[in-house]
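User: Could you check the structure of this?
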Amino acid sequence: MTLLTGRQSLLGLIKMLNSDDARTWQEVFVSGDASSSGVKCVGSILHGTMVSLVFVDALECRHYVTISDDIALGFPIASVFSPGAGTYWQDELAANSRVHKHVEALDLHDHAVAARLVTAEEASPRILVRGNANFAHVLLSVCPAVERLIDMAAHVGTRLPAAALKERHPLGTPAEIYPELGEVVDLDAISEDTGSGLRYVQDSLVPAAVGVSNKKPLMAVTDAARTRLRGFIPGDAALPSGLSERIAGGDHDFVLWMSIRMLARRTIPLVEAIDLAARVAAQLETRYERPAIILDGLSLQSGDTLQSRVSGFSVEQHLDAERLAASLISARVAKVAPGLRLYAAIGLPLWESIRLAEQADAYIVHDGTTQHKIGWLYPEKPGMVHGPRQRNVGQGYVWHPVDIGTPAIYVPPECVVDHKESGARIPHANYGYSLMQDDRLESFIAAFLGVTGEDDPNGTLYRQEYEGKV
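Assistant: Sure, the predicted structure tokens are below.
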């Protein structure tokens, strides 16, 4: 065997890992359905959040298969490097500057890795359950992938071992969320410092995710993920706020979930938030005998403190601003809809906010993670969404990567005025905007509330307001 045939064997393996349209490369690797007699995986190298699987061929030459740490891409295989051949394969999208710097570190410290592999046996796979500062990334990319791996293991009667980095796990600790895993260990506890800034792990670490470069069609919030998270309560959770019981005790005939975000990147001015709530409240009171609005503010993700930073402000600053807004909204609503009850759900733990959302009959929220919290986990609920025109371009439906349900509906773009220079493109559309508080917005709110009892309310609203107009 030559170095060339070793490379050919590994490239053949990678092709097999990526060729199954119905499964991620991670599923194929863990299942053992793809293998090569010419190479074997003998462990992993960890450098920060970058992972490389270490393969050796019959000549004991090392080949590093580096995995992208980009959660949105789905942790695809990014490059293959060998000290004797350099980088001889890479994915053009995934092999970014971070991957290149990681490969440079592997090249520089390959001797330190080699010293750990003198008697290395073939490694067993271990799932790496990653986190992210934004719960929506975890919900969309990591949760579906882990659910699929759990199902795969259960089908053959096994439980997969797993590991987690010391990083933000916004929905909760992986060990608690996924009890079906065989174990979830701290990666530091099973890794060995090579003395070069690289850490060696005897297992084959497999970061689990789906994404735009790794089976994008599988990138959807599934029933399994929704069921798991809607019922999840962390083991160290404080006592619930009691808000759920108070709402249930109000015997309301309609409950609307409505977001208030004052310091977020995509938000409307305070005076407009007050006016919008008053308009909605007045319409609800004409339609129902005992209506209520839940004012949904910032939720505290697992690990958040009052000093944690969100969108450039501390959590404490967000909560202070939202509580002030809620008090002003309450005063205004009391004048225009005295029979409506307001509940402020500001600063709740994310797990409690998710459970509370089940009590809503419909929602009116900002575009972005505020909508994902209710719209992705309760896709059957009617939803009306407002956001900047860079995202709301007249398509009607919001982004809906969910396996069921009709997407929520944007307010008409003519009701929105962007707070940015005309023609400017802002990354991720993270900028403020205004809602034109006029007859068009009033009629759209009325149309939305008028269809909430339909079998497919979002679809009905789309047909009424958008079909044939795009």
